[in-house]
Amino acid sequence: MSPTTTLLLSLLATQASAHTFIWGVFVNGIDQGTSYGIRTPAYNAAARKGGYNNSPVKDLNSIDMRCNVLGDIPAHNTIKVNPGDNLTFDWHHEIRNDTDDIIAESHHGPSLIYISPDPPTQNSFVKLWHQGKFQTNPFPQPGKWSTTADIKKHFGHMHVRIPAGLKAGPYLIRAEMIGLHEGEVSYLENARRGAQFYPDCVQIEVMGDGDVELPSGVGFPGAYSYEDPGVVHNIYCSTETRKPKTSTTPCATDYIIPGPTVWSGAWPETTAVSVGPVKGATTATPWSTWIGTDSVVTSVTYRDVRSQTIVGSSVYTPSWSEVYATPTATAERW
Ligand SMILES: *[C@@H]1O[C@H](CO)[C@@H](O)[C@H](O)[C@H]1NC(C)=O
Ligand SMILES: *[C@@H]1O[C@H](CO)[C@@H](O)[C@H](O)[C@H]1NC(C)=O
């Protein structure tokens, strides 16, 4: 860690949730290598199974909404791309191969992709793609959702195409899955539940002589609110039998994906490219080896999931640079 960051060890209860993040990026079907260019998240709970684990971000006001836990720390390398390139993000849970479960079967929800100049600002994230629910609920099923019916079914592959003519320079792509399985009530009302956000950022450098600049966009935190019908949404309410008692929201069978509309400069079609072999490790380096501690919390307060007692506070202060810093081999992330 840099000397300016402070870490304070806390005894944290483990959270029962599925964790998913991007393990690799394919450019036009070619793997750039495990962890290459990716700001692999740490997470808000104790290390387990020697792998990375990011507890979902649930506090919409947390800086972790931007690029997940420790998202301010650059990766060592940046993925070089050209406008028109097809990128495939390879999401996994425990191992980077096709036997992995990607994300829990219950974690129905939307998937979203944003792009921002690197470093981002409070209004720099522009939406390139999103996918919510594929069909109106055929009563009594909770619909077919992007996370479980597409990304999970397709070995964790999420696709996006670099906008035509995009101006050269460093950008961050923020890809995200949202689990709505406990989203029938807001985290603000019930910290045990609430929508689960799995954002992850990838460093790219756009090459070429394009002259298309991104419009202004949204900020993370800030883009989503507890008032959004896409954040507090009951995916079970058409089933009646599985309607959680905690629900405070009216039943809605349509689903409105949170965040802004997709930018008109994004490609109207997202192509599912076929990908080549994975390069590099298929297992994760324990995050504690590069964090150098057993746990880290970036939220202002962290509550035990069951007892709701505060078990940690302000243990890590993210410091997002306002100027672009070229990644180096001495960047702090592994
Ligand atoms: C990206 O995918 C589209 C649609 O399949 C294809 O036409 C295009 O050539 C691809 N781009 C590159 C750089 O391969
Ligand atoms: C994927 O990983 C699992 C768990 O380590 C292993 O049993 C399986 O053989 C692997 N599959 C492939 C295709 O590598």
From TrEMBL:
It catalyses: [(1->4)-beta-D-glucosyl]n+m + reduced acceptor + O2 = 4-dehydro-beta-D-glucosyl-[(1->4)-beta-D-glucosyl]n-1 + [(1->4)-beta-D-glucosyl]m + acceptor + H2O. It is found in: Secreted. Its EC number is 1.14.99.56. Its cofactor is Cu(2+). GO terms for cellular component: extracellular region. It comes from the Eukaryota. Residues 19-239 form the Auxiliary Activity family 9 catalytic domain. Its main location: secreted. The keyword Signal applies. Residues 1-18 form the signal peptide. Keywords: Carbohydrate metabolism, Cellulose degradation, Copper, Disulfide bond, Polysaccharide degradation, Secreted, Signal. It is an enzyme of class 1 (oxidoreductase). Gene3D superfamilies: 2.70.50.70. One of its GO terms (biological process) is cellulose catabolic process. Lytic polysaccharide monooxygenase (LMPO) that depolymerizes crystalline and amorphous polysaccharides via the oxidation of scissile alpha- or beta-(1-4)-glycosidic bonds, yielding C1 and/or C4 oxidation products. Catalysis by LPMOs requires the reduction of the active-site copper from Cu(II) to Cu(I) by a reducing agent and H(2)O(2) or O(2) as a cosubstrate. Has a modular structure: an endo-beta-1,4-glucanase catalytic module at the N-terminus, a linker rich in serines and threonines, and a C-terminal carbohydrate-binding module (CBM). Belongs to the polysaccharide monooxygenase AA9 family. This is AA9 family lytic polysaccharide monooxygenase. The lineage of its organism: Eukaryota, Fungi, Dikarya, Ascomycota, Pezizomycotina.
